[in-house]
Amino acid sequence: DRQVTFMQKGARRMMARGKFVEEKREMDEAAAMIERCWRGFWGRRRKNILLYERETEQRQNQVRLLKSEEQFMADYVKVLERRLRRLGLEEKNNELGDKVKEMYAYVEEQEFNYTELVRQRDAVSPRAIEQG
User: Residue 105: in which H helix or E strand, if any?
Assistant: First the structure.
């Protein structure tokens, strides 16, 4: 009787040990999967944070660059305006613009006169042209 209980105890121990080893292996696999999922989640999150920070910094740098270029161009325009005033180029430009307008008006007048002359010549008969 005692030997049978001893053998049953050993058999139960072996079966329990087998179950324990199997359950431990399953739990280790589950823990590894949880760790993999957590590391993947955390890695993706960290990557997204770093990408956002990098993109934000690049955009801020671009804005700073554009602001400095705008300031440079505004200063350059002021320099050019002072130079124009100093040299009196604006007044000269206005005077020349007026002269150009006058020349256009003169050319238009001459063209009108020519077309009127051609129209009148066509209206006169050829015999009147011969007779003078």
Answer: helix 89-123
**C-alpha–C-alpha distance, residues 117 and 122, integer Å:** 9
Taking the C-alpha atoms of residue 21 and residue 28, their distance in angstroms, rounded to an integer, is: 10
Determine the Cα–Cα distance for residues 45 and 32; give it in Å rounded to an integer: 20
Q: Identify the pLDDT of residue 125.
A: 75
Helix (H) or strand (E) holding 46: helix 2-87
């006058």: which residue's tokens? 102
* Cα distance between residue 36 and residue 28, in whole Å: 12
Query: What value does the mean pLDDT take over residues 93-119?
Result: 94
pLDDT confidence tier of residue 88, bands split at 50, 70 and 90: confident
Asked if 51 and 44 count as a contact pair (C-beta separation under 8 A), the reply is: no
Radius of gyration of the chain from its Cα atoms, rounded to whole angstroms: 50
Q: What is the pLDDT of residues 34-63, one digit of tens each?
A: 999 999 999 999 999 999 999 999 999 999
